[in-house]
What does this fold into?
Amino acid sequence: MARVYELPTHLQVEDQLIAGLTARQLLRSVIGASLGYGLWDQVLWLPDEVRLVLAFVLATGGVVFALLQPGGHTLDQWLLAGLLFVALPRRLVWRHGTEARRHAPQNQTGWAELELQPEWVAAQPAAELHRSDPPSRRPRSFSKLGWRS
It folds into this structure.
């Protein structure tokens, strides 16, 4: 009899913790509620009505950030995309390699061309071993430890 295995088909779906909310949604709503409560509790110099309205706005903002997903992306992802759009340059200029070298500073102090010289390139090759030599007469070298026998 053939064995039947159940394959998971919901791998791209986040787990729901409480009241159908995912961990991220729950965390965002808790952060909004905490900010609202912190404002209500700590900003005592404002009148009670203003504190209540600001605390309600912060708590509601947390819930909105948690639940609203326009275009399948969360609001914090949209906010990050907007900030990157504003902060990053709008035009990128491509230069061919020779053109870029022509504009590079050549004779400035502190400018140096990078040349890689690994140690193994300059090392002399070891003496060739001949098959006619017996194993006891072959030179052994332990170059890392500086021994030679």
Notes: The longest strand covers residues 16-18. The mean pLDDT is 77. Residues 16-87 form one domain. The longest helix spans residues 23-42.
